[in-house]
Design brief:
Structural class: alpha+beta
Strand order of the largest sheet: 1-3-2
Oligomer: single chain
Length: 122
Amino acid sequence: MNRLLKKYREEVSTELMKKFSYSSPMMIPKVEKVVINQSIASGETDSKLFETAAAEIAAITGQTPVKTVAKKSLASFKLREGQTMGCKVTLRGEKMYEFLDKLFNVSLGRIRDFRGISPKSF
């Protein structure tokens, strides 16, 4: 079991039950999924950019990404319907907790002058 998941189940969930006086453990908030996406500006014109972005996300998450396509045409962005815009990966369960643990403890810790994550971004 991942250490972040273990800490959540053993320490955080019990503290939340006490603090907010939940009557059932099912009322405790939890993380269900993490979606990682990357937009590619000129993905249709240069397919190597998409392949590079897909390889980067696959290396980070350990899963192969899915192509995202434009739903509507936007002339101001020179975007056509059905054109490849980027790629995304959805993480759930054990892989999600592994990713979050590495993000919080390794990646964010190495950023110079890191002031924290904005609560408005979630």
